[in-house]
Design a protein that fits this description.
The structure holds two protein chains of two kinds.
Chain A: H1 15-20, H2 30-39, H3 47-51, H4 58-67, H5 70-80, H6 84-90, H7 97-100, H8 113-127, E1 142-146, H9 150-161, E2 165-169, H10 178-181, H11 190-200, E3 206-208, H12 215-224, E4 227-230, E5 250-252, H13 253-261, E6 271-275, H14 279-290, E7 295-300, H15 311-319, E8 323-326, E9 328-336, E10 338-349, E11 355-357, E12 363-366, E13 369-372, H16 380-383, E14 400-401, E15 404-405, E16 419-421, H17 424-427, H18 432-453
Parallel strand pairs in A: 1-2, 1-4, 2-3, 4-16, 5-13, 6-7, 6-13, 7-8
Antiparallel strand pairs in A: 9-10, 10-11, 10-12, 14-15
Chain B: H1 4-10, H2 14-20, E1 26-28, E2 31-33, E3 37-39, H3 48-57, E4 61-63, E5 78-83, E6 86-93, H4 102-115, E7 120-125, H5 131-144, E8 148-152, H6 166-169, H7 172-185, E9 190-193, H8 202-210, E10 215-218, E11 222-224, E12 246-249, H9 254-265, E13 274-277, H10 283-291, E14 296-299, H11 301-306, H12 311-325, E15 353-357, H13 367-375, E16 380-381, H14 395-404, E17 433-434, H15 444-448, E18 455-459, H16 469-474, H17 483-489
Parallel strand pairs in B: 3-4, 3-14, 4-7, 7-8, 8-9, 9-10, 10-13, 13-14
Antiparallel strand pairs in B: 1-2, 5-6, 6-12, 11-12, 15-18, 16-17
The chains are: A alpha/beta, B alpha/beta.
InterPro entries (chain A): DPD_II, FAD/NAD-bd_sf, FAD/NAD-binding_dom, Helical_ferredxn
Domain FAD/NAD(P)-binding (chain A): 142-439
Protein name (chain A): Glutamate synthase (NADPH/NADH) small chain
Chain lengths: 457, 490
């Protein structure tokens, strides 16, 4: 490796953010972890393992904590999920492993799998031990990975373990994508994501930062590599399409979250309104509270039952003092250079599911900051090809469906054999662990496909 | 509330019930006991001040920490086995007998008996194997007012290297001879405490009986090394980097103690009034020892772990259980289980049980499945959702099937119908099925099942009369002890 400064040392923590975004779920100490580990029944063909998109062998890593085999526990986790540390903090375990725990069925608390997983991963970092895997013998094959988010990282790890060169290209200056820039700091601090990627890079991953791959670039990479993995995520957050959206004080949830995580943003004004009621909206609303807002509203054009945020995220937001306005739709933004308020209309759902405004229900909600969180666009335009991609490129012919790249779920292969894909650009926007699972399957899929191509299948 | 009538009607027993409450009083080899709960000879009975506090807490008796020529102890004396987060499931010590002068112990016995005349104080004794030494210590202990004597023929560490403790208990002739010397002098009942560190506990028990013992107590601690430190490679308890085998006790040893108690009580040549010892920590344990014939029980580890206060539930729990079962006194149920312990050859070979999994209670952990496949007889299957019973599906095939599954995080807006999905009901495919035709009734699945009553072992009526191995041999159906093995090979 070159003389690169380790990723975690490239960032400076903002004391204010560190203070205000303490762990939502504090770590276990050994005397708490071991009894919790011993509570695990060690189910056969365990539902938690099945529920985990990366199929971490949960009972095995938990029993290793109980027996004091912490390095073995971390290895069991990493073997299935190279971003096991991030996932232990960022996963919505209530709907995954812990939600599947059989303990629910006889009035017992589910095993605290996430905290145990974090305990094992923290122990690995504290021990100073290297990543427990070595790269495979070099094959001379190489793969270009577009985007350095969780899907590409997981894919790259599988490739490196099989001796295939992995070149990662990312527009940002640091790796990790939304895992680094997009997860609430009280769940996964930015520096923790970087620490994990630093360890992963021991496999010999080549990073190319601040490199935005355009159509021509992609066509070139297709020519210089044996396969290409698309881990490009989703596009920009949608706009409302109302007057005043250009005013200062209108932002979107991902920029707000990336802003405070990277230290560019340390406070928000008093009155914040978040438009949209998904998990990202909740993260932005809670962040606003912690960044000093005295009144934070989330507003949504439908009712509570239709919100896409997980139930536990909704509860968390209420707990932090976020107020919810249901059945309202923005019609305009008021302001004079900077935002002053949001024009709203009450709406009602009709029987066919469409939304109609209620007569004479317009009102204005005063706001100093408006945060949009109404879904992300896709990269459909980019993928549909551009004139510059030239006749030799095949990526313009990749099959899409509603803007998502269509893949074979087991291998990650697209309709164009040399292109593989995974993560949000294929699944419509799910969790880190889903991206890791996609990337892992694709890495194995690519290696298998290349093996056949090069007579090693 | 103030009137007597009012308080009785509130006590939950009613006026008449209070009179019918069972009693814990009993007589043990002539010693009147207010209850059967004694503290064993050990650190909790080291001095008079402790024993008086123990009596205040409710203990009916105490066997004084063994009195003899004062010894010097090492520093670092105890070690233990923790089990899955619970502390001291097994306990070990290398402490010797009392390190206090004989005269101090005897003065305190006198003081305790003066203040607590109705409580039982037993003097545990250990001196060198000389007739006059034993005569002397017996005389002095009885003069101090001890209600009885317990001869420590069981201490397995340290003292045994000096020809005392288990060095006596392990040699029946010594055991008989010293018991005889003590009986020449003793005016109070003599209890011989037996060591379990011997192949057949009945041999020293018979020797003690021949020597004239009035009662026995069993078991003393079991030789043990509790563990080795994996960083220092040194055993514990660590005395300057070294250790020595100690005496094991605590909850872990109870099954061993129960077996030895049963052996003594089922053998006419060893049977004597017995004080049960070994892993007793609550009233349930005590009831089990009494059901196997013990008249009193002795407790050490549980009191060392939680303090004297544990005796409150021991009394309360045993009384409540006795009332529920209709027993008025300890004697009413003492030894009731002895006829139920038989030799294997006397068990009914025609008794057949099979496992039944109650699907409504099953949580789908599948521990019974893996236990039956790997640890028993491969007759539990995961085929409830198969079109037909499938006994060919191996655990490896089940796991491989799951590994191939693609799971994703359910996102409400992407996956309609996933919000509010419940995990409260066990899916049918996770509820194992017992192949009753092949089930041998070994109990393993019901033992590993974490849910009470989810797997029950149920009798299959085969319409066959009782028949034991012993009877089969007598009928000439089997020619010798190894006949069945031989016949399967021919």
């Amino acid at each position: 490796m070159s003389e690169r400064v380790p990723f975690p040392e490239q960032v400076v923590a903002t004391p204010e953010v560190v203070k205000r975004f303490g762990d939502l779920h504090p770590p276990f100490d050994r005397q708490a972890a071991v009894p919790e580990a011993n509570r695990c029944l060690y189910c056969f063909d365990a539902p938690c393992t099945i529920a985990c998109p990366t199929h971490i062998d949960v009972p095995s890593f938990i029993k290793k904590i109980a027996s004091g085999n912490l390095s073995g526990s971390a290895r069991t986790i990493l073997d299935a999920n190279i971003l096991g540390a991030s996932c232990s903090r960022a996963c919505p375990v209530e709907v995954l492993c812990e939600g599947a725990c059989v303990m629910h069925r006889y009035n017992k608390q589910p095993i605290q799998i996430a905290r145990l997983q974090r305990f094992a991963m923290d122990a690995l970092y504290e021990s100073g031990a290297p990543l427990p895997f070595a790269p495979g013998p070099e094959t001379g094959l190489s793969v270009a990975l577009i985007g350095a988010g969780p899907a590409s990282l997981a894919c790259a790890a599988e490739l490196r373990r099989r001796g295939i060169r992995a070149d990662l290209y990312d527009a940002r200056p640091l790796p990790g994508g939304l895992n680094t820039y997009g997860i609430a700091e009280y769940k996964l601090p930015l520096v923790e994501s970087l620490r994990e990627i630093e360890m992963l890079s021991q496999l010999g991953v080549e990073f190319h930062f601040e490199t935005k791959v355009d159509a021509a670039g992609l066509a070139e990479l297709e020519g210089t590599h044996d396969a290409v993995f698309l881990g490009i995520g989703l596009g920009a957050i949608h706009q409302l399409g109302v007057a005043g959206e250009e005013l200062a004080g209108v932002t979107n949830a991902l920029d707000l979250i990336a802003g405070y995580k990277s230290g560019a943003l340390t406070t928000v004004p008093k009155r914040v309104v978040v438009v949209g009621a998904g998990n990202t909206a909740i993260d932005a609303a809670i962040a606003s509270v912690r960044l000093g807002a005295s009144e934070v509203h989330i507003l949504y054009r439908r009712g509570q039952e239709q919100m896409s945020a997980f139930a536990f995220e909704y509860e968390h937001a209420k707990h932090e003092g976020v107020k919810f306005l249901w059945h309202v739709q923005p019609t305009g933004i008021r302001g004079d250079g900077i935002v002053k308020g949001l024009e709203l209309t009450r709406v009602a759902a009709t029987e066919d599911g469409s939304i109609v405004p209620e007569k004479d229900s317009a009102f204005v909600l005063e706001a100093d900051l408006i945060v949009l969180s109404i879904g992300q666009s896709t990269h459909a335009d980019f993928l549909s090809g551009s004139p510059s991609s030239g006749p030799s490129s095949t990526f313009g012919k990749i099959q899409l469906e509603r803007g998502r790249i269509v893949i074979d779920r087991a291998t990650g292969q697209t309709s164009q054999p040399k292109f593989f894909a995974g993560g949000d650009c294929t699944n419509g926007g799910r969790e880190v662990v889903d991206a890791v699972a996609d990337g892992k399957r694709a890495g194995i899929g690519i290696a298998g496909w290349l093996g056949v191509q090069h007579g090693k299948g | 509330m103030g009137s007597a009538l009012g308080s009785e009607s509130l006590d939950g027993w009613g006026c008449n019930m209070a009179k019918d409450r069972p009693t814990l009083t009993s007589t043990f080899c002539g010693i009147e006991c207010m209850n059967p709960f004694w503290l064993a000879s050990a650190p909790p009975t080291n001095c008079g001040e402790q024993i008086m506090r123990a009596f205040d807490a409710g203990w009916g008796g105490a066997v004084w920490k063994t009195i003899g020529e004062p010894i010097t102890n090492v520093s670092s004396r105890y070690s233990s086995i923790d089990w899955e987060g619970r502390r001291m499931m097994g306990f070990n010590n290398i402490e010797l007998i009392s390190d206090r002068p004989i005269e101090v112990n005897l003065q305190e016995i006198a003081e305790v008996k003066r203040r607590y005349p109705k409580h039982v104080v037993i003097a545990s004794l250990m001196v060198e194997s000389k007739r006059e030494s034993w005569h002397d210590i017996v005389q002095r202990a009885e003069d101090a007012g001890a209600d009885g004597l317990e001869l420590n023929f069981g201490c397995p560490h340290g003292m045994s290297e000096r020809g005392m403790g288990s060095a006596v208990g392990q040699v029946p002739e010594y055991c008989e001879k010293i018991t005889g010397w003590v009986k020449e002098k003793a005016r109070t009942p003599v209890i011989v405490k037996l060591t379990p560190n011997i192949s057949d506990i009945r041999v020293p028990a018979r020797a003690a009986k021949r020597g004239g013992a009035d009662a026995l107590s069993a078991i003393n601690t079991i030789n043990s090394i509790t563990g080795i430190d994996l960083d220092t490679f040194q055993p514990s308890p660590n005395v300057d980097g070294k250790s020595s085998h100690g005496g094991y006790c605590g909850p872990a040893v109870k099954p061993i103690a129960l077996n030895m108690v049963q052996q003594i009580q089922a053998d006419a040549t060893s049977m004597l009034p017995l004080s049960g010892i070994g892993g007793i920590g609550n009233w349930r344990d005590a009831a089990e020892f009494i059901l196997l014939g013990c008249s009193t029980v002795q407790v050490c580890t549980a009191a060392m772990h939680y303090g004297y206060r544990i005796v409150e539930d021991m009394q309360d729990g045993l009384l409540n259980w006795m009332a529920e079962k209709g027993f008025a006194t300890i004697e009413d149920f003492r030894g009731l289980s002895l006829p139920n312990v038989r030799e294997w050859k006397q068990l009914n070979l025609n008794y057949q049980i099979v496992a039944r999994i109650h699907a409504d209670l099953c949580i789908g952990c599948q521990l019974c499945y893996t236990a039956c496949w790997d640890g028993a007889h491969q007759c539990i299957h995961l085929d409830r959702t198969s079109p037909a019973p499938d006994t060919t599906l191996t655990p490896g095939m089940v796991e491989a099937e799951s590994a191939r599954r693609i799971s994703t995080t359910p996102i409400p807006k992407l996956d309609a119908g996933t919000s509010g999905r419940t995990n409260a009901i066990t899916p049918l495919e996770r509820i194992p099925r017992v192949d009753e035709h092949h089930c041998v009734g070994c109990n393993l699945c019901s033992l590993v099942c974490p849910v009470e009553n989810c797997i029950t072992m149920e009798r299959i009526d085969k319409d066959l009369p009782f028949e034991s191995w012993e009877e089969r041999v007598a009928k000439g159906l089997i020619t010798s002890g190894t006949g069945e093995v031989m016949s399967t090979n021919t």
